[in-house]
Amino acid sequence: ILLVEDEQALRRLAATVLRRQGYRVYDAGSGPEALSIWEEHGPDIHLLLTDMVMPGGLSGRDLANQLLKRKDHLKIIYTTGYSPEAIGQNMMLIGGMNYLPKPYHPEKMLQTVRRCLDECPQAKKTTVGSAACAAVVAPIVTAYGAPRSVSGLSS
User: Fold this and answer.
1) Are 23 and 38 in contact (CB under 8 A)?
2) Nearest-angstrom CA–CA distance, 15 and 1
3) Cα gap 94→67, rounded to integer Å
4) C-alpha 2: how far from its chain's center?
5) Mean pLDDT of the chain
6) Cis bond upstream, residue 55 (ω within 30)
7) Using CA of residue 85, residue 73, residue 109, residue 34, what is the dihedral sign?
8) Is residue 93 a contact partner of residue 83, using CB atoms and an 8 Å limit?
9) Per-residue model confidence as pLDDT tens digits over 123-149
10) Strand order of the sheet with strand 2-4?
11) Tens digit of each residue's pLDDT (9 = 90 or more) over 87-117
């Protein structure tokens, strides 16, 4: 797992919780730092858990798009303290699948990571702006309609 979070205390806590569950975690405080880690460990990384809004000129979405060009089957979970509407990103985010709203409980993070690793289809050349879990999202939207609020879908 490549964990990208600019808040040091949260990054440390999340990395510790994930490592205690047996995950190999590489953590970074910014997009550029994550790219540097990717250069050395990319083949070992199967999931990107990234904050959406970070310093350093590279958002979580931009980072994900760059990494998907290098590994088209990378699974991605986005996290943010902002509402998806406030970010202004045209993305399909589903709580508990590819989206983890802040603040989150460590157990909720573990559930989301496990679900994404187990159930999210591989990205397979995801286009810019598409969610890595789009194949899972489409049946939900078809059955229940487009979500008004992502937080309302969190479990």
Assistant:
1) no
2) 9
3) 21
4) 9
5) 78
6) no
7) negative
8) no
9) 444 333 334 443 333 333 333 333 333
10) 26-28, 2-4, 47-51, 75-80, 99-101
11) 555 666 656 668 889 999 999 999 999 999 9
Task: Specify the 3-state DSSP secondary structure of 95.
Answer: strand
What is the distance between the alpha carbons of residues 66 and 51, in angstroms, rounded to a whole number?
A: 15
Alpha helix segments (H runs only) across the chain = 8-20, 31-41, 60-70, 84-87, 106-119, 134-144
Q: How far apart are CA 135 and CA 42, in angstroms?
A: 24
Give 42's DSSP letter: G
Q: Alpha-carbon distance 30 to 7, whole Å?
A: 10
Between CA 66 and CA 9 the distance in angstroms is 26
59: its two tokens: 């958002």
Q: 61 with 93: CB under 8 angstroms? A: no
